[in-house]
Amino acid sequence: MRPLSVDDVLSVSFFYPFINDYLTIAVRSLRFKKRNAIDKNKKE
To answer: What is the superkingdom listed in this entry's lineage (predicted)?
Structure first.
């Protein structure tokens, strides 16, 4: 494993907000799907 260079740190700090947003959206959509499934089960 090579040591982190300045370029690596800059690119990670640049992409981190995008990765963070993507993860947040993914988690939200999963929770939303779960909630919908539970609601459907309750109605029947």
So the answer is: Bacteria
DSSP state for residue 38 in the 8-state scheme:
H
Return the closest-CA partner of residue 4 out of 13, 42, 31: 13
The helix (H) or strand (E) run that includes residue 37 is: helix 6-43
For the stretch 3-41, pLDDT in tens is 878 888 888 888 888 888 999 999 999 999 988 888 888
Question: What does the radius of gyration of the chain's CA atoms come to, in whole angstroms?
Answer: 19
- Tell me the C-alpha distance between 21 and 28, whole Å: 11
For the beta carbon of residue 32, count every other beta carbon within 10 angstroms. 10
Tokens of 23: 């993860």
